[in-house]
Amino acid sequence: MQNTQIILNSRPNGMVEASNFTIQESTINELQDGELLIKIKYISLDPAMRGWMNAGTTYIKGVEIGAVMRAFAAGEVIDSKNDVFAIGDHVQGLLGAQTHAISNGKGLSKCDLSKGNLSWHLGILGMPGMTAYFGLLERGQPKAGETVFVSGAAGIVGSTVGQIAKIKGCKVVGTAGTKAKCDYLLKDCGFDIAINYKEEDVHAVLKQHCPEGIHIFYDNVGGPLLDTALANLAKGARVVICGAISQYNSKSMYGPKNYMKIVTARGHITGIIVFDFLERYPEAVAQLSDWLHTGKMNTKEHIFNGIDTFPSVLKKLFTGENFGKLLIKVS
Amino acid sequence: MQNTQIILNSRPNGMVEASNFTIQESTINELQDGELLIKIKYISLDPAMRGWMNAGTTYIKGVEIGAVMRAFAAGEVIDSKNDVFAIGDHVQGLLGAQTHAISNGKGLSKCDLSKGNLSWHLGILGMPGMTAYFGLLERGQPKAGETVFVSGAAGIVGSTVGQIAKIKGCKVVGTAGTKAKCDYLLKDCGFDIAINYKEEDVHAVLKQHCPEGIHIFYDNVGGPLLDTALANLAKGARVVICGAISQYNSKSMYGPKNYMKIVTARGHITGIIVFDFLERYPEAVAQLSDWLHTGKMNTKEHIFNGIDTFPSVLKKLFTGENFGKLLIKVS
Q: Which of A16, A263, A279, B153 has a CA positioned 20 to 30 A from the CA of residue B325?
């Protein structure tokens, strides 16, 4: 049986390009005791991938040149010599950007399809959903009546954060880069205010509509928008740094000039590394699934077909072209 | 009776200059009921003054052009129509840069000279000492065995922070800008490591001598040094922003490019506004006085004579020329 794999061919110098990848065919090895074979159905495209393409180690080692690109993926077990995972099980984990994966079961989790579609287990019920859930609730500690400001709000993490904040009784404000995305935030996600940061003066809108200041800033974007948020903090504000997608393809990182606003606001800046909450994923999956099934929350997907689209699709995460959780459906 | 006053004449454009001030003679008004007259003996020169010279409001309103320059000062009550403060009492507060002050007693506190010299009540037993004490202990929460890194370590706040951290059983590392200051940190303040940031590679010294990383960074300086500290955080690190003296005279603030290191370190960035601990000052004064009198701690002063030196002396805070708590002794 053949495996089609996306190989990291070169490291990007600035913006990620399709040419950073090659597509390779390889033969699938025979299973050893304890291993299982997964036929991958969906590959997740996540902003974190840009960091994984760099040399060196941050919270996780960079992908080696010539190796299969690291990726979250979900699929079905089609062969197993493993006691925990049986043929027919649906699973997800860091299976790589490929059509088939052999795993020893470590770091793999079963997807309960009664909780949601398989693809959701890579989105709102997967790593991005967990990041939103624990980042907002544990790091942000929202209280009813507070104002939550989310950047990159139309993304899978941002839209989930905003919807959870609404459920918790907060006033929710988000930024996005198109009118369609802003409409989605207002109409489908129940945001109170959506700001098109490409066309509106974010600072002025915040001053006008949030004179009480921001109690929680959940940042997916970084850059000057972070400074704007810092300039509008309420007393006791919590800034939760999740990502800085505006900066991942820059050669030099933008440092927030307004960082001392956290001092006068008597607030703090912290971050979310989702892997720290691994043991509590089931709790979050159950809660999010319940909110989804009872219509209190929705999620949006943006799906491309065929693994060969991977090299060109990844870039869409950073250009603002994608709208919804970006996935590749492996044919 | 005549009062000599330092007047804010113009706002600095970049570095503070002597020409931003004028000296004015005025007549002292007669006391109203509830008021007291203080003969000022010491005027404190503090980095915060640079911010007070700007227009606008941060945690406190900027000084108006033509007004007496805001300053902490200490002196003796020489006349009183106030029930709380009697002739002969020693007091300190925001009395302004002048030789005499009339106060209604609000915000004024008595200086217990058994706790330390009057001048100490503007330094280690005053606002800077309180900033060090509550900033380190409440915001930093040091634990024995942890590594505490202090920037601007030879200043009154930094040297006090480092000495408290040593008393609490921490490993203490500080930066300063001259060999004499580094020697002072090692010999008089008991620091484990003192780094001359003008001559040494701070990052390399930290990597070599603190491979365990920094658990608390107490920042008085800001700028690229903050980035160096962020790149060397230990897991669970607390960054306490006290000041950014390297930036106060800059026209644009330096933003820390490494701010996302707080995420991977699972730490947080917070700040200290000393006025939030006003009610607990007596506890800190008693503790610091005890440490000073039992030889567990020392403090250094840098005193200029005569109020007319004020305009030229203030700048020394920002050029690194001062060494010890900067004060003017009013003749």
A: A263
A252 close to B (CB below 8 A): yes
* Residues comprising chain B, all counted: 331
Q: Which amino acid is at A313?
A: V
Tell me the Ramachandran region of residue A217: left when phi exceeds 0, alpha when psi lies from -120 to 50, beta otherwise: beta
The residue-averaged pLDDT of B159-186 equals: 98
pLDDT tens, residue by residue, A202-231? 999 999 999 999 999 999 999 999 999 999
B270 touches chain A (CB under 8 A): yes
Q: Residue B63 CB: number of other CB atoms within 10 A?
A: 22
Q: Which two tokens stand for residue A161?
A: 């954060």
User: Phi first, then psi: what are they for B219, rounded to 5°?
Assistant: -105, 115
Kindly give the pairing relationship between strand B109-110 and strand B90-93.
Answer: antiparallel
Task: State whether B252 and A254 contact (CB < 8 Å).
Answer: no
> What's CA B103's distance to the chain center, in Å?
23
Indicate yes or no: CB of A253 within 8 angstroms of CB of B258.
yes
Distance of CA A259 to the CA centre of its chain: 25
Q: Is A264–B227 a contact, with Cβ atoms under 8 angstroms apart? A: no
- A264/B273 touch (CB, cutoff 8 Å), yes or no: yes
From the list A177, A196, A178, A131, the residue with the least C-alpha distance to A158 is A131
pLDDT digits (tens, 9 = 90+) for B96-124: 999 999 999 999 999 999 999 999 999 99
B270: nearest CB among A241, A268, A276: A268
Angle at which helices B156-167 and B281-293 cross, to 10°: 80
What six digits make up the tokens of B11?
């706002």
Element (H, E) at B28: none
Per-residue burial over A155-188, b if 16 or more Cβ lie within 10 Å, else e, is: bbbbbbbbbbbbebebbbbbbbbeeebbebbeee
Question: How far is Cα A298 from Cα A293, in angstroms, rounded to an integer?
Answer: 9
Domains contained in chain A, CATH given: 2-123+299-329 (3.90.180.10), 127-275 (3.40.50.720)
Q: pLDDT of A310-331, one tens digit each?
A: 999 999 999 989 999 999 999 7
ipTM of the complex, rounded to two decimals:
0.92
Instruction: Report the C-alpha gap between B301 and B128 in whole angstroms.
Output: 12
Q: Which amino acid, A109?
A: S
Query: Taking CB atoms and an 8 Å cut-off, how many pairs form between chains A and B?
Result: 81
B58 sits in which H/E element: none
Residues 6+ apart with CB under 8 A from B83: none
**A269 contacts in B (CB within 8 Å)?**
259, 262, 268-270
At B66-86, the pLDDT tens digits run 999 999 999 999 999 999 999
A271 contacts in chain B (CB < 8 Å)? 260, 262-264, 266
The verdict on a CB contact (< 8 Å) between B255 and A255 is yes
